[in-house]
Design brief:
Double-stranded beta-helix; single chain; alpha+beta
């Protein structure tokens, strides 16, 4: 059976059938999925009960893995629950126990509820993310995706001209600072989270479509006073995440959702995270190029 992609949201989200991700992909299957990503930016795969090893093998069809490290989280190596190939997007500790309400890791992870693009705080940001829902809560915990291509297209000509060459600084210091978590960071963590510079407008390498490169990690615009930059970015975010541009995914156990960080933002939605397990595991495909000349902030 050939890979089939049914559009759930016109031009943005597709539901994929005709492929078993627990088995190696054929070159034709991998090409069809990659082409679907170029065209739509978000793909949903149902009923894919993969192991960690199978998720990694599937991911490697699309590039090299970006491994989580101390630049992307506060988790120490000895406290990791999963292989270094996967990011742990769960509410569980190393012993598979729920984080307590005041747990430092839980409070840091609340930043995932802000609109963001994965790894925009890295000098070379991520290409694709692939999130596997192993255990999902009975209620809540959806993931929302916003189409940054449509958001760019909807800007008026004056704003398009204004954003065209702007460079933003991205850092976990900004996204976690918005939650008041920055005071709880160690000096080593602050050093690891030093800002990087990213273009505010990105061009897809294959389609040529422009998109806004927004994220809660963006906290400054080069050459603009910080208060002015932040209110400008907030207004852009509000425009870019209006309902016409947003798809909400309600998770079922065994789902895999794959998205293009170059063309989308996403955020997790609330659930009873101190009473219900949400075990999600992400592989991330490393980016291929910097978005702007990187200068140490």
């Amino acid at each position: 059976m050939a890979v089939h992609i049914k559009e759930l949201t016109p031009g943005f989200v597709g539901e994929v059938s005709g492929v078993d991700l627990t088995k190696p992909l054929t070159p034709e299957e991998a090409q069809a999925i990659d082409a679907g990503m170029d065209r739509l930016a978000v793909l949903v795969f149902h009923d894919q009960p993969v192991t960690d090893e199978q998720q990694v093998a599937f991911s490697l069809n699309f590039g090299q893995l970006e491994r989580p490290d101390n630049k992307s989280n506060i988790t120490k190596a000895q406290d990791r629950r999963l292989s270094p190939d996967l990011a742990d997007i769960s509410n569980l500790d190393r012993e598979n126990r729920l984080h307590g309400r005041d747990d430092r890791q839980r409070l840091f992870n609340l930043g995932n509820r802000l609109w963001h693009s994965d790894s925009s705080f890295r000098a070379t940001p991520a290409k694709y993310s692939l999130l596997s829902g192993r255990i999902v809560p009975a209620e809540g915990g959806d993931t929302e995706f916003a189409d940054m291509r449509q958001a760019y297209d909807a800007l008026d000509a004056k704003t398009k001209a204004e954003v065209e060459h702007l460079i933003c600084e991205h850092s976990l210091l900004y996204s976690r600072g918005a939650l008041g978590f920055d005071d709880d960071l160690t000096e080593d963590e602050k050093q690891g989270f030093r800002p990087v510079r990213q273009s505010l407008v990105r061009v897809h390498p294959k389609s040529g479509r422009k998109s806004l490169y927004l994220s809660a990690h963006a906290g400054r615009i080069v050459g603009m006073p910080t208060p002015e930059a932040r209110i400008f970015l907030r207004e852009l975010n509000e425009q870019a995440t209006k309902p016409p541009f947003v798809y909400a995914h309600k998770w079922r156990a065994g789902d895999i959702v794959m998205w293009d960080n170059r063309q989308t933002m996403h955020r997790a939605r609330p659930f009873d995270d101190v009473g219900q397990v949400r075990d999600m595991r992400r592989t991330t495909i490393a980016g291929e190029a910097m978005t702007a000349e990187q200068i140490a902030a």
